[in-house]
Design goal:
single chain; 220 residues; alpha+beta; 4-stranded antiparallel sheet; 28% strand; membrane; MSP_dom; coiled coil
Length: 220
Amino acid sequence: MSGVGENQLISIQPDELKFLFELEKQSYCDLKVANKTEHYVAFKVKTTSPKKYFVRPNTGVIQPWDSCIIRVTLQAQREYPPDMQCKDKFLLQSTIVPPHTDVDELPQDTFTKDSGKTLTECKLKVSYISPSTTQRSSESGATNGDGQGSETISTIQRLKEERDAAVKQTQQLQHELEMVKRRRNQRNGGNGLSLKLAAMVGLIGLIIGFILKLTLASPT
């Protein structure tokens, strides 16, 4: 087990997940995971509260000396946690895999601990930031002239912008999903209508042919 923020294979920034917490609103935090080795490294993200967070990608493969961004989204919550304290934790596991391994090719036991595999782990804590608390801190910092007020305000603005971007992205994905469903329903409905129309035309043709046959066969 390695310390917070880094291990022998990868480095993680930041070393703590911080979310701007507002009721009924999503918030997200990006993690930069860098491969510090000359090997291909696979990673997997786990959390103690999987229903509260949306992690993408939660599993991946990083090429040698490369990095990737993991976005962790805190789902909209209906109530504040006691004293704004969060006990949730994240665990990022990593291990060396064969060169040019694709994430879809990872065996199911890739992140299972056994004697023949080097599996490193990194724990990450979670903290919530209250807009009202940070606002008061920024005003106090500006009054005391310690230079931290403007930095806190910029952090709040950045977190709000990130939250709004996550909300827009979710809404866009939902809209695209509805469009796909509508197109699929229209396509299925159109095919059904075409089949019914063809059956009706065929039936009418048979009836007309039968009537003509009877007419021609009847004595004049």
